[in-house]
Amino acid sequence: MNKTDLFIYKYSLIKLKNKKKFYKLQLINCYFYSLFKIIIPSFYLFFIYLIFIFRIYSFLILIRYIWFFTGKFIVKNYFFLFFYSSFISSISSILKYSLFLLKRELFSIFLLSSRYTLQWVIKQINFCLYYWIKKWENIFFFDQSINLRLYENLERWLFEKQCRYINKYNIQRSLLWKIRYYFGPFDPYSQDFWRFGDCNSSTYLIKYKIIKV
Question: What tens digit of pLDDT does each residue of 186-211 get?
Fold first, then answer.
């Protein structure tokens, strides 16, 4: 059981013990939505971004939780469905902007690649990818279709940069040599052959997957 599942379990126990707090959290969500989304839309996005930074799980779990869409509460469920769709659109816009910042950071690493070894380049890319995924891991379960599109976009962009890097420093080499030298299952437990890496130092690029639960 990971941290998110453990938190969902603990939160469900708290909710069952004291439903009044759950009602208050719903009213707080409604208040923030009406204040920030209607009056100040830009500040509403900033407010959600602060929630992600400080890892306030209760707000996110509340919207995710299945009881949130039942008709047992004070406010009609269709109102919160509208709020949920607005929240999802806000998440997607923030994720797209964070992906843009990540690409800009990775692009600067590829620009500095001429000064350093391939092993250094791969380690820097892995560091950026790991902390970007770690930062947004708490909201990746909201809408899987959005996350899949973002992952595919990032993978295509990274593969293009890797091919440019290879062709830049190995103009005279054949295509077969490039594939053997820069791609391969450097990780003995990896089943993906197209994995960018350095065969001399056995350093490879990390891979990530979205697993449907």
Answer: 555 555 667 788 877 778 888 776 55
Residue 199 falls within a domain, yes or no? Answer: yes
120 shares its domain with 50: no
Q: Which amino acid makes up residue 183?
A: F
What is the 3-state secondary structure of the chain? CCHHHHHHHHHHHHHHHCHHHHHHHHHHHHHHHHHHHHHCHHHHHHHHHHHHHHCCHHHHHHHHCHHHHCCCCCCCHHHHHHHHHHHHHHHHHHHHHHHHHHHHHHHHHHHHHHCCCHHHHHHHHHHHHHHHHHHHHHHCCCCHHHHHHHHHHHHHHHHHHHHHHHHHHCCCCCHHHHHHHHECCCCCCCCCCCCEEECCCCEECCCCCCCCC
**How far are the Cα atoms of 6, 33, 137, 158 from residue 150, in angstroms, in the given order?**
27, 26, 13, 12
* Pairwise CA distance, residues 176 & 133, whole Å: 33
In this structure, is residue 81 part of a structural domain? no
User: For 20-66, what is each residue's pLDDT tens digit?
Assistant: 555 555 555 555 555 555 545 555 555 555 555 444 444 554 444 44
**CA atoms of 164 and 40, how far apart (whole Å):** 43
Q: What is the mean pLDDT of the chain?
A: 66
